[in-house]
Write a structure and sequence with these properties.
Layout: H1 7-18, E1 24-27, E2 31-34, H2 44-53, E3 58-61, H3 66-72, E4 78-83, H4 88-93, H5 95-107, E5 113-121, H6 135-148, E6 156-162, E7 166-168, E8 176-177, H7 182-196, E9 200-203, H8 206-212, H9 219-222, E10 231-233, E11 236-238, H10 241-245, E12 254-259, H11 271-287, E13 299-301
Parallel strand pairs: 3-4, 4-5, 5-6, 6-9, 9-12, 12-13
Antiparallel strand pairs: 1-2, 1-3, 7-8, 10-11
Length: 344
């Protein structure tokens, strides 16, 4: 139903780059995140303790922040760590920089359970024309550095894209990347995870689809609350937009590295809607999509904690927790791991 990624998600991607990404994103299997653009936020050890208290087991950080990495030493959490967008051209052009990056940010922290390295965040040829061509060679150099250090079987390398790279997303079966960037951007970076058995990482925001196209997207469809099928796509029936937006293929696993709903600052941004979306999301990703029933979707909820120094106003209100570490609304992450087919 939505042909392109919408304004609010693109704006979020730009802000993450502009502010250097001191940003934790945390998963439950389902997951959570927080970018740390505030003047009243808890310290990294407190944040990790908060995750442990609420059974948030997987964490994504957007750069290798030493304070967060030190706090994670010896903890059971698994981690996605990002390569900052501006570092990508240098790593792509100089294998020794890739080796140094891995030594300083991965090998140095041997008591952390690193899961994926995400080379860049929401890069596209239109918004990042000077960086986009370097993603594939940067991924290859990081991969080679891991391999040389004997870590490649443990840690996979990929990239995070937003849905702006899709030329068509409706219906799901007709989903396709934008043709103008396929040869120079999409094909090399999609080929890489297929060849290395790594997942494809993408940020998916039903909220943004709804806010941008309210005349086409029903609120209950975006909030997981539709009582019946809204979209039929061949043999598959969709009651919620999240499932319909999930793109994937037979040759690559898809990980949802961001999704969530704001509690203030914009259209339909209320505490009740945020609670409704995230609560239903937790159950939904356990079940899988109509196209992949019974296969849980590795999914990361944005955001962990509200951040009062973001702008515009909408960006301040994605947190599941308040800065005082109290839940903004009831949300349980206590899913029985034994009942979930955790990704291999």
């Amino acid at each position: 139903m939505v042909s392109k990624q919408v304004t609010c998600l693109s704006r979020m991607g730009r802000q993450m780059k502009e502010h250097g990404l001191r940003f934790i994103q945390l998963e439950i299997h389902s997951s959570i995140s927080s970018q740390y653009l505030g003047n009243n936020l808890p310290l990294a050890p407190e944040v990790i303790a908060l995750c442990k208290q609420h059974n948030i087991q997987r964490i994504r950080i957007y750069n290798p922040d030493p304070s967060i990495l030190e706090a994670l030493q010896g903890q059971p959490n698994s981690l996605i760590v990002g390569v900052v967008n501006n570092d990508i051209p240098g790593i792509a052009n100089n294998p020794s920089l890739a080796t140094s990056w891995v030594q300083n940010n991965i090998l140095k922290y041997q008591n952390i359970n690193f899961r994926y390295i995400a080379v860049g965040n929401e890069i596209s040829p239109s918004s990042d024309p000077t960086i986009a061509p370097f993603i594939a060679p940067a991924m290859q150099n990081i991969h080679n550095a891991l391999s040389a250090l004997g870590l490649i079987e443990k840690i996979k390398v990929s990239m995070v894209l937003s849905m702006v790279v899709l030329g068509q997303s409706y219906p799901s079966s007709a989903g396709a990347f934008a043709t103008q960037s396929q040869d120079t951007f999409i094909n090399p970076i999609v080929k890489f995870p297929v060849e290395t058995n790594a997942p494809f990482l993408i940020d998916v925001y039903p909220y943004c689809a709804y806010a941008d196209q309210m005349n086409k997207v029903l609120l209950d469809y975006a909030l997981f609350t539709s009582p019946s099928t809204v979209v039929r796509d061949g043999e598959y029936e969709y009651q919620n937009l999240f499932d319909a937006m999930k793109a994937g293929g037979a040759n690559v696993e898809v990980v949802m590295t961001e999704t969530g709903w704001p509690s203030d600052g914009g259209i339909a941004a209320t505490i009740n809607n945020a609670m409704t979306y995230n609560s239903h999301l937790v159950g939904s990703v356990k079940r899988g999509t109509p196209k992949g029933l019974g296969k849980p979707i590795e999914t990361y909820i944005f955001d962990l904690i509200d951040e009062n120094q973001k702008s515009p106003e909408l960006e301040k209100h994605w947190g599941v927790f308040l800065p005082n570490k109290q839940p903004k609304y009831p949300l349980s992450f206590n899913i029985n791991i034994n009942e979930m087919a955790m990704p291999k």
